[in-house]
């Protein structure tokens, strides 16, 4: 089983820039929304919310989106380290890739901010398939 989720979003007026094209920050916000859904679906959202800060975010943008366009956002866990997690993100509209990216987060102790290993039960849920 792959730790993956797809959400559908529609470009809102507030998601666009002065040229009427979706703002680059919208992709990051939607990727984090997909991450929250994945963690919620896996039953770990209250254990990870506020405890998985980003350490790396990278997106490449292709075709621009405009107001009211629909987007499928797919987030997949591709690597799980001792304390880190790597997500690949793909955003498409009518089969055309709009943006693709990668986010890396680490699991921390909320009070101290110190990195900590993924507990075995969460590791089992989040681990990408071997291969």
What does it look like?
There is one protein chain. This protein is α+β, with helices and mostly antiparallel strands. It has a single domain, classed as Roll (Thiol Ester Dehydrase, Chain A). The chain contains 3 helices and 5 strands. It has helices at 24-42, 45-48, 120-126, and strands at residues 4-10, 54-61, 70-80, 84-93, 96-106. It has a 5-stranded antiparallel beta sheet, with helices on one face. A hairpin with a 2-residue loop joins strand 4 and strand 5 (96-106). The radius of gyration is 15 Å and the shape is elongated. The mean pLDDT is 94.
Strand content: 35-45%
CATH superfamily: Hotdog Thioesterase
Strand order of the largest sheet: 1-3-4-5-2
Radius of gyration: 15 Å
Encode the helix/strand succession as letters: EHHEEEEH
Characterize the overall form: elongated
Structural class: alpha+beta
Count of DSSP strands: 5
Specify the CATH architecture: Roll
Oligomer: single chain
User: Helix amount, in percent?
Assistant: 10-25%
Unreliable runs:
none
In the CATH hierarchy, what is the class? Alpha Beta
Mean pLDDT, to the nearest integer, reads: 94
Total count of domains: 1
Alpha carbon gap, first and last residue: 13 Å
Counting DSSP H or I runs of 4 or more residues, the number of helices is 3
CATH fold node name: Thiol Ester Dehydrase, Chain A
Q: Biggest β-sheet: count, sense, barrel?
A: 5 strands, antiparallel
């Amino acid at each position: 089983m792959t730790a993956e989720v797809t959400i559908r979003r529609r470009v809102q007026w507030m998601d666009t820039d002065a040229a009427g094209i979706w703002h680059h920050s919208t992709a990051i916000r939607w990727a984090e929304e997909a991450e929250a859904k994945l963690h919620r679906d896996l039953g770990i959202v209250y254990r990870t919310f506020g405890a998985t800060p980003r350490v790396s975010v990278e997106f490449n943008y292709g075709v621009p989106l405009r107001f009211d366009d629909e987007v499928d956002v797919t987030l997949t866990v591709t690597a799980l380290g001792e304390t880190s997690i790597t997500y690949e993100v793909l955003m498409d509209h009518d089969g055309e890739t709009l943006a693709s990216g990668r986010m890396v987060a680490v699991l921390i102790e909320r009070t101290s901010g110190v990195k900590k290993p993924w507990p075995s039960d969460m590791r089992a849920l989040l681990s990408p398939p071997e291969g």
